[in-house]
Each structure stands twice: as C-alpha cells, then as structure tokens.
Specification:
CATH architecture of the largest domain in chain B: Orthogonal Bundle
Shape of chain C: flat
Radius of gyration of chain B: 27 Å
CATH topology of chain C: MetI-like fold
Oligomer: heterotrimer
CATH class of the largest domain in chain B: Mainly Alpha
Chains: A alpha+beta (about 375), B mainly alpha (about 300), C mainly alpha (about 300)
GO molecular function, one term (chain A): ATP hydrolysis activity
Family (chain A): Belongs to the ABC transporter superfamily.
Subcellular location (chain A): Cell inner membrane
Number of domains of chain B: 2
Number of strands of chain B: 0
Shape of chain B: flat
Strand content of chain C: under 5%
Membrane topology (chain A): Peripheral membrane protein
Pfam families (chain A): ABC_tran, OB_MalK
CATH topology of the largest domain in chain B: MetI-like fold
Helix content of chain C: over 70%
Distance between the termini of chain C: 50 Å
Largest sheet of chain C: none
Helix content of chain B: over 70%
Number of helices of chain C: 13
Structural class of chain B: mainly alpha
Largest sheet of chain B: none
Number of strands of chain C: 0
Strand content of chain B: under 5%
C-alpha cells in the first residue's frame, strides 16, 4: 500500500518553474531519499508534501487522501528541519509537547508519549533544558523527538544532518537508520549528500532541474544510472565519461574504441548485446573509478575484463585507498586502487577495466543504453 | 656575542621606554579630553539639581553656577503643588499626571499594535504587504506640522478636543510607524523554519504569536516601550497645540512656567519643576540605557 | 475514497480561506490609520495651503497665493536662512564632535559605559527641559557670564540669547550638546562593525594610528556618515522645541525657524492658509533630504545584492 503518492506535481514561482511534473510513490514503511544538487527542487517538493508550499498543479495523496489543500497540521505528518527549528524559549519537553497541546491531547497521554520517545532517543537527561544549552547532536535528537511524539503516517526530513560536523553526521546517520528499522514509518528524506541517500534509503529519487531523473533502489541507481547526470552525481569520485565509438573487432565481437595520447587507439571489448541497443556508433563510455585495477594474473585473462595502459599524472593516497589521475588520450580519468597496487606518478600503468560494470550512454539524449 | 645580546636588550629597553611613555601620554590626552567634555555635559544637570535645593536669594546673589551655601527642600513641594503657571497656582502636579495619563496608554497600545503589525508584515506576508510597509515607513518621517490642522479638526469631530484621550490617539497613530518598523525588523531575523515547524505542530496565527513570537520578543518590547515612553513624554508640539490650560502635558507647562517669569525668576522652584518633568525619562534612561541606545541606533538606520 | 478526501479538503479550504485573510483583517485598521495619517493629512494640509483660510479652515480656492505671500514675507526669509545656517553648523559640528567622542571611546578605555552614559543622557531629556536650563545658563545676569564675571574677569561678555545677531548660536550650541551623543552612538556602532582583521593588517603594514583611522577605518564606515548626516538634517528641519524654549524666536524675530513659523501663523496669528503653506515647505525640505537618501539606500542594496 502506498503511504504517499505524487502525480504530475508542478510548482511555479512566477515564471520560474521549479518542479516540472514529478511522479513519486512511497510504500508503507519505505525510506525514500530525495537527492540532488542545490536548486533541484527537492526541498520545494518536501515543503509541498508538508503543505508549507501551495500546489500549482498535480496531486499529492497521503494514504488515500488527496491533501493538496489540507493544512499542514491535518496531514498526519511530522518534519525535522535542517535548522532543527526548535522553539528557543521552550524547554525540550515543552518543544515536544507543543504539537500535542495544539491538538488537544490529554496531559497524561502527553507525559506518557514524551517519556517513551525520550527513552527511545536517550534524551531524558535534557528534558528540562532549553535548546540553546544543547550541543548540535543533542538538538538533532530533540528535533527528531518532536517529530516522533506525533506518531505520524509520514516522516519528513529536510537535510537534517547538514549542520553537524563530519564525524557526528556519520553517527547520526546510523542512528536514523536504526530508528527507522525499529519504528518502520514511511520516511521522505531530503539530502544533497549522495552517501546519505545510498546508506539510508530503500529507494532513491535523484532530482535535477525540477525533474526526477531516476527513481529506483540504491543498487540500480549506482550500477545502472538512468543517464549521465545520475551517473555523475552518485558516487565519489564521479564516474569517468569517455567519448568513444563502437566497432567490431576482428573476431566480430563489438568493442568501444577511443584514441590514446600516443596516437594509438584503445579498444575495449563489450559484452552481451549492449552494442545492438546503441542507436549510433558514437557513445559515451562510463567507468567508475573502482572498476579500474592494476593488471595482474588474477584479472588479465578474466572474462569481461579489458586491458590497456595509461600514464599516471597525480597520485592521492587517502589511507584506505589511493586515487590516481590517469591520462586516457586527451582526457583525465580517475581510478581508485587499493594501496598495495597503487601506481606511482609518471608510471605507465597497465590497467584492467571491468567492462561488465561499464555503462554506455547515448550522447544525444545522455540516457543509458 | 654577549655584547651584542646586551646591546640588543638595551635598545629594546629604550624602545620599550619610549613606547610606554607614548602610551602614557596618549592615555592622559584621551582621559583628559573625555573628562573635560564630561564636565560640559554634567554641569547643566548639576546646576538644576543643586539649585533646586538652594534658596532663591542665594541664587540671585551668587549666580546659577556656584557651590551651594544652603540646603532646603521647600522648592520641591512648591513646584509640585503651589507654583503659579498661567494664572493657576496648583504647581506642575496636574500636568505631570496629564503626561502620565497620556504616555501610559499610548505606549502600551502603540507597542502592542506594532508587535502585531510587525508579526504580520514579516511572517504572514500577503500580496502588497511590502508596499504597505513602505507606506507605513513614510509615517516615520512625517513632520508634525503637517498633521496639526487635520488632527485639530479630527479630534474636534471625535469630541476629543482638548483632552488627554485625544493626545493618546495622536501618539498611538504617530507612533505606529516606529513600533511597526521596530518589530518588523526584529521579527524578520527569526527563522521561518520555526513557524513552519509550529504550523506542522498545529499552531495557528495567534498561537504562534503568543507562544513563539512573544516569548522571543522581550528585548524588542523593552526597546520599543522605552522609545515610545521617552518620545511621547518629551513631545511638545501636539501637547501645546491640541490641548490648552490644565489639560496640557508637562512639557507645555514647563514652557509656560519659564515664559511667565515676568517678575523676579524663582530659579529654585523652576529647577525643581524642570527636574520633575525630566525625571521619568531620565530614570528610564538610567535603568534601561542599553535598550535606549539600541532603540536610537535602530530608529536612525533602518 | 479519493473523492471523499477531496470533499473534506474542499470543506477545509473555505475555512482556510477565511483564516488566510485573518492577518489582513487584523492589520487593516493600522494600514488605514497610517494611510490617513500620511496621505490624507498631508493632502488636506496641502489643500488648506491653497485656500483662503485665515482664523478657521475655509475652502475658498485661491491657488498659490499663500505660497507667494509666504516667499515675499521677510519673516519667512529669516526663517529659512536661519534653517540653512543652523543646518550647516549644527550638522557638521555635531558630527565632528560625535565622531571625536566615538574615536576617544573606541580606544579601549576603562568604564566605557560610564562615559557613554554621560554623553547620551541629554537624548533622554526633552528639548524643552534642555532648552529651559540652557536659557538660564545663557542669561547674562545669572548664568555663565555672571559666573565668569564673579571669578574676576569682569569684562567677559556672553549674552547670546539677547543678541539678535548671535542668538542662533545659542540654539546651535545647545543643539550640539543635545545630539552629539547620538552621532557618537551611531559612529561607535560603525567603528565596532569594522572587520578587526583589516585593522590588524594596517598595523602590520606599519600604518600609524592616525593613518589607520583616516585611510582604513573611516572610509569603510562611509555609509554611517551619510546616515548620521541625514538624521541630523531631519532634526534640524524639525527644530521647534529647542527654539521655543531657548529664545522663543527672539530677540524680535531673529531666531524664527520654518517649524516655529508654521506654529506662529497657524495658531497665534490666525493665518492658517499661510501656516499650511509653510508646513508644506517643511515637508518639501524633508523630502529634499530623504528622497535622495532612500534612492541611495535602494541603489546600495541593489549593488550589494548584485555583488553578493
């Protein structure tokens, strides 16, 4: 059953169209991440789901109810804001009670709910404090607590972790995941951080310029990105794009070719019928950094692996892994290697490319072939 | 080597001595100037305070600016209830209470309206609300002279001519622009997310105002109340034009008092009267100085 | 189910529409009052200035006659010449004095708030009270002259308020005394808003104290100078209380100001038409100062938003 259904939703501010026909649905208990660069319309979409922005056209259903013109308070939702938006003059407890008071929940029940949620989030020690006396992580917890006491049909998160420092952000991410697993509420989570989206969501909607580019589970979004935008946005470092041409090699098996710096041509064989789906000979070859590795006995003869060599320009060790900028013709390509097979600057590195994981895109439409 | 080090410390010492002497001189100049100017600022206040306790004969003989030789309190009760102003010998008490009756309701009403207006113009914007705000801002700059005739006419029609209630109305409307400006500028800095959260929590227009905005407002309420209180208390033009005789506020009475001194001036009583008139805003200033200055700077630069 | 949902939402939306307009209903009286106060009052006074009103408002139209007789009136020429003279010295001196105080206080002095309290207290006192006391001090028979004479310098003369030529200086001096603290407060706020890193950079560049102020700090608070000047000019144009309390336009008519002229003609002489014309001139003078200033503010905001 769908907890949230959005059909052909549009939003304009004057002549500027920020949402251009969005379709989305969330099944009960799902964790949906809305991800995209700033200005892609994800926060506007969330505000419209919350009822804080009016709908220009299209429909929003929460459960079976059309909520286009329902007040935020009547939508059975709860929201956690980027700035937390805790009422600064109220104690933590009063913050959590505020919404229940508005709805006329009896005092005894309020106490019970607050006690339960406070225990769940381990915020009992600061119930009497004001938000100003709490640390960033504690405020974050309180903001979630204020949402949890509502026990809504839909949880909305608007970049809730972006005000935390890096370490705390990772910890809180895990907590949110645990929390969602425990309470199992449908959640819509806006973020610009693709790692957050990947780790938390059961499905990800990648947005760009007011449109949903792809709406799928994290694995599909990462491995079969719908177009070059999604491919480039998800994953860090980004997927490498190389302009290439499809040819048939001597044996008749198709391959992608692109020129190398020395005047030579790299020819990487393709697998299982991808070439047949291509509309034209020209394609964009997409290879993720981790699908490049040093040629070795274990991978050089392996099915689906192509070999080539490339000049190493820059090497950036990060400890756990080493990034290297390689020269593919006149283009720079990033590879991600384990430290023991890491290249040296200036080396002409023999590479094995995992072509089973490579993506081809149509240069005209930028779509995945 | 040792010599060089020694030489260096000697030079350093000399430099340090020069630097500290220069610093001393500059400090003397700074405090000297500040002290001198302070004398100019304090003397007028001191003159009034001291003269309200001296005998008039002594002031006549020694001048206003001299050390007191006598001390008595007679001038104060005289100024309060006996002194003759414009043919009536009831002191300034009556005018003082007129001012109180004018300033208290006018301050409360204009501050309350300003809070609500500022809340609406910053958080519940509607089409044209920016233009509305712009028009209200114009009121800040209107010279009182332009409004004199219309007010006189309007108050006459409303049956409020020559009454303290009339002045309350005048100051409420006159102050509306300022109070709205103060609150609006304060409220725009309150994050909108707070109101969104409250709306999701089911709070409406008034609940958000009372439960979220007002608890955040004490600083701006104090600034506005002080601004309105001192401004209205010290106002002269409307009081003297729109009201007459025993319905005038204290500022008009002070002018009448210093003009009426055709015979020998009773500086002792007049000093006490001036102090009575200046005391309420001065007390407000000395107790709420920080907020008073904040109001001044905010009022000047929007 | 969806239809039911729709009907529910339609029901709420009527109620919501009423609620949506609550803020407008609440603010409407204030808007109306402000509108009347600003536009109707000004328009009415303008109309009176074109009428043949004398002792009481009357609505016989006589065009710009009141303005013509205003501008041929010798008293009016005294009034606006006084305003120009007063504005020039009052504004520049109050600014200079306030800036000096602000710089002195900015030198990390002890008991800063004590000094500030001293220089600002005149702002809490009415111009009426200030003017009354200073009038006593200017009085040669009991005030400053009397004191200096008593100290032994018997030739000393200081009788501004009784001297036709110099009476305006009494108002200028008292005006500065009353408002220098105000310009000090604004300048001090400006000085404190300068990025301390810029000042450190200037010190490392070897700039002297004086040069740091002249070349680095003061130029970066340029907008404050304009703001202070505009506010003080406004005070100058509205000068009424001080002139009444200090000299009551005298001796003779020598310290008449436009604002006192309005009062005089409207309520002492029963020449409402001409008083209204003078009031319109006061409004025009304010507009001359404030319209360019608000255009400047708009321009600056645009430029800032374009750059940032």
């Amino acid at each position: 059953m769908a907890s949230l259904t959005i059909r052909n939703l549009r939003k304009s501010f004057g002549v500027v169209e920020v949402l251009k026909g969005v379709d989305l649905e969330a099944n009960t208990g799902e964790f949906i991440a809305l991800v995209g660069p700033s200005g892609c319309g994800k926060s506007t979409l969330l505000a419209m789901i919350a009822g804080l922005e009016t709908v220009t056209s299209g429909e929003i259903y929460i459960g079976d109810r059309l909520v286009n013109s329902v007040q935020p308070k009547d939508r059975d939702i709860a929201m956690v804001f980027q700035s937390y938006a805790l009422y600064p003059t109220m104690s933590v407890k009063e913050n959590m009670a505020f919404g229940m008071e508005s709805r006329g929940v009896p005092k005894a029940e309020q106490e019970k709910t607050i006690a339960r949620v406070a225990a769940l989030l381990q915020i009992e020690p600061f119930l009497k404090r004001k938000p100003g006396q709490l640390s960033g992580g504690q405020r974050q917890r309180v903001a979630m607590g204020r949402a949890l006491v509502r026990d809504p049909a839909l949880f909305l998160f608007d970049e809730p972790l972006s005000n935390l420092d890096a370490k705390l952000r990772v910890d809180m991410r895990t907590e949110i995941k645990k929390l969602h697993q425990r309470i199992g509420k449908t959640t819509i989570y806006v973020t610009h951080d693709q790692v957050e989206a990947m780790t938390l969501a059961s499905r990800i909607a990648v947005m760009h310029q007011g449109e949903v580019q792809q709406f799928a589970d994290p694995d599909t979004v990462y491995n079969r990105p719908a177009n070059t935008f999604v491919a480039g946005f998800m994953g860090s470092p980004s997927m490498n794009f190389i302009d290439a041409e499809i040819t048939s090699t001597g044996g008749g098996a198709p391959a992608v070719n692109f020129p190398l710096s020395g005047g030579g041509v790299a020819s990487l064989p393709l697998h299982n019928g991808v070439a047949d789906r291509a509309q034209s000979k020209k394609v964009i070859l997409g290879i993720r950094p981790e699908h490049l590795s040093r040629q070795s006995a274990s991978n050089s003869g392996k099915q689906g692996f192509a070999t080539m060599s490339a000049l190493v320009e820059v090497v950036e060790p990060t400890g756990a892994e080493t990034m290297a900028v390689l020269k593919f013709g006149d283009r720079e390509v990033v590879g991600r290697f384990s430290p023991d097979e890491a290249p040296k600057t200036g080396e002409n590195m023999p590479l094995a490319v995992d072509m089973t994981r490579a993506c081809l895109f149509d240069p005209a439409t930028t779509r995945l072939i | 080597m040792a010599d060089a080090v020694l030489g260096a410390t000697v030079v350093e010492d000399r430099e340090a001595a020069v630097a500290s002497r220069r610093r001393l001189i500059s400090r003397i100049v700074i405090y000297g100037l500040l002290g001198l100017i302070s004398v100019v600022y304090i003397v007028p206040l001191l003159v009034v305070v001291l003269n309200s306790f001296r005998t008039n004969a002594e002031i006549g003989a020694m001048g206003l600016i001299s050390l007191p030789q006598s001390f008595r309190l007679d001038a104060w009760p005289q100024a309060w209830s006996d002194f003759c102003i414009g043919g009536q010998c009831n002191g300034v008490a009556r005018y003082f209470w007129n001012s109180v009756a004018m300033v208290v309701p006018a301050t409360i009403i204009s501050t309350a309206l300003g809070a609500i207006n500022g809340y609406i113009l910053s958080k519940w914007k509607f089409p044209g609300s920016e233009i509305v705000f712009g028009c209200m801002l114009l009121g800040v700059f209107m010279p009182g002279q332009i409004a004199l005739l219309p007010w006189a006419f309007l108050l006459g029609k409303l049956g409020l001519a020559n009454s303290v209630y009339g002045l309350v109305l005048v100051h409420c409307i006159q102050g509306l622009s300022f109070t709205t400006l103060f609150f609006r500028n304060y409220y725009v800095s309150i994050p909108d997310d707070l109101l969104k959260a409250a709306r999701i929590d089911g709070a409406g227009f008034w609940r958000i105002f009372w439960k979220i905005m007002i608890p955040l407002s004490p600083p701006i309420i104090i600034v506005t109340v002080i601004w309105q209180f001192t401004g209205i208390w010290n106002e002269y033009l409307f009081g003297v034009v729109l009201n007459s005789g025993s319905n005038q506020p204290i500022t008009s009475a002070l002018v009448a008092l210093s003009m009426s001194g055709t015979t020998v001036r009773t500086y002792d009583v007049m000093s006490a009267a001036v102090l009575i008139g200046a005391l309420p805003p001065l007390l407000v200033y000395f107790f709420g100085g920080k907020y008073f200055v904040r109001g001044l700077t905010q009022g000047a630069i929007k | 189910m969806a239809i039911a949902g729709q009907s529910v939402s339609a029901g709420t939306s009527t109620w919501d529409r009423i609620k949506k307009w609550t803020p407008v209903f609440i603010i409407a009286p204030s808007i109306l009052a402000s509108f009347i106060y600003v536009f109707v009052f000004a328009g009415w006074t303008f109309y009176i200035s074109l009428s043949d009103s004398t002792l009481l408002p009357s609505y016989g139209f006589k065009g710009f006659e009141n303005y013509v007789s205003l501008w041929t009136n010798r008293r009016w020429s005294v009034a606006y010449n006084n305003l120009l003279f007063f504005s020039l010295f009052y504004v520049t001196l109050a600014m200079a004095f306030g800036l000096m105080l602000a710089i002195l206080i900015d030198q990390r002095i002890r008991a800063e708030s004590f000094w500030r309290t001293i220089f600002l207290y005149p702002l809490a006192v009415s111009f009426i009270a200030t003017g009354t006391v200073w009038q006593w001090l200017y009085n040669p028979g009991s005030g400053i002259q009397f004191m200096v004479n008593a100290l032994g310098w018997t030739d000393f003369q200081f009788a501004l308020t009784t001297d036709r030529k110099n009476a305006i200086w009494a108002i200028i001096i008292t005006g500065i005394w009353g408002s220098a603290g105000f310009s000090m407060a604004l300048f001090l706020a400006g000085l404190r808003s300068v990025d301390p890193d810029i000042i450190k950079a200037a010190q490392i560049d070897g700039a002297s104290w004086f040069r740091t102020y002249r070349k680095v700090i003061l130029p970066s608070i340029g907008p404050i100078f304009i703001a202070v000047a505009v506010v003080l000019l406004q005070f100058a144009i509205k000068t009424f209380d001080l002139a009444v309390a200090l000299t009551n336009s005298g001796p003779g008519i020598s310290t008449t100001f436009p604002a006192t002229y309005v009062y005089d003609f409207m309520f002492q002489r029963g020449e409402i038409g001409q008083g209204a014309a003078a009031a319109m001139m006061v409004l025009a003078a304010l507009a001359i100062v404030l319209v360019p200033y608000s255009l400047y503010l708009v321009w600056r905001r645009r430029r800032e938003s374009r750059n940032g």
